[in-house]
Design a protein that fits this description.
The structure is a single chain. The chain contains three helices and 18 strands. By secondary structure, the protein is mainly beta. It folds into four domains: 56 residues, Beta Barrel (OB fold (Dihydrolipoamide Acetyltransferase, E2P)); 62 residues, OB fold (Dihydrolipoamide Acetyltransferase, E2P); 57 residues, OB fold (Dihydrolipoamide Acetyltransferase, E2P); 66 residues, Arc Repressor Mutant, subunit A (Orthogonal Bundle). Strand 17 and strand 18 form a beta hairpin. Helix 1 crosses helix 3. The chain starts with 5 loop residues before the first strand and ends with a strand.
């Protein structure tokens, strides 16, 4: 049986009255007529998402769900019954979140960050907002400075909690984030520190000399978009720099210092200017 909850690239095996049957050479799955593309050829490859239909049968679709197996997303509750909540994930059949898998009782029309897992007892896909139990405790296969995928899970006074590569918890400090984020926001980031207790600090920007190069390029682009002049310099308020360039004053000063040494800009009391 094909793994449900993920994408598969399968060959079109045959056409029937109810749709196309797709195969990986061992297992077949139906792509119903409503999802069949206008133009197709028997034997060609087609990428589809496989899940269980209303009768609990594996079925393929060309719809793109908001979440896949073992990943995370922010989903809206469509309705609630005596068994649990049913979430909108972009498919015809809602995604079930049993009460026992809700970190706090879900409410209709509200959004929650969840992971999608395969219930071993029923063989069905389900959602859980108790996301910590699905994350690895040990920071394996990552190292300081590595570029990673980040998704914001929730925000506190201390910082922005993120999920790293769909596997680990991490934290970005509020004073080091120069963009507006909310739960579900996805971006690239970098491992800043891995502590002895396994906790991970991340940054939305590169660290060290590599970051200076990227930031210098960012300043150059901003100059080009503003007729070669930016009214920012060493004396500018950090909030003003953050508002215009989405970077810290420390990074900005290093960036313009690098550009000045390369004789690409002039710095004066009014700001900086392209040479």
């Amino acid at each position: 049986m094909l793994q449900i909850g993920v994408y598969h690239t399968l060959k079109i095996d045959r056409e029937t009255k109810v749709g196309l049957f797709l195969t990986n050479g061992k297992d077949d799955v139906l792509l119903p007529n409503k999802y069949v593309p206008n133009d197709f050829t028997i034997g060609e490859d087609l990428t589809v998402f496989v899940y269980l239909d209303h009768e609990e049968r594996p079925v393929a679709t060309t719809l793109k769900p908001s979440i896949t197996l073992n990943s995370f997303a922010v989903l809206k509750v469509n309705y609630i019954n005596k068994f649990g909540a049913f979430l909108n994930w972009g498919m015809e059949k809602d995604l079930f979140a049993p009460f026992k898998e809700q970190a706090r009782p879900m409410e209709k029309d509200k959004r929650y960050i969840v992971t999608m897992y395969l219930d071993k007892q029923t063989g069905r896909l389900a959602a859980s907002s108790k996301i910590n139990q699905f994350l690895d405790k040990e920071p394996l296969d990552i190292e300081v400075g590595q570029e990673v995928d980040l998704m914001v899970s929730h925000i506190t006074e201390i910082g922005i909690n993120v999920i790293i590569n769909w596997r680990f918890r991490g934290l970005a400090y509020q004073n080091e984030v120069f963009e507006t984020v909310s739960p579900g926001y996805k971006t690239k980031g970098y491992i800043k520190t891995i502590r002895p207790d396994g906790k991970i600090d991340v940054s939305f920007q590169k660290q060290g000399f590599e970051a200076i190069d990227d930031s210098a390029q960012q300043v150059l682009e901003a100059l080009k978009q503003n007729d070669g002049i930016l009214r920012l310099n060493d004396n500018s308020h950090p909030e003003e720099i953050k508002s215009v360039l989405k970077m810290s004053k420390k990074t900005f000063k290093k960036a313009i210092g690098s550009l000045y040494k390369q004789k690409l800009i002039d710095i004066n009391n009014e700001g900086i200017q392209l040479v």
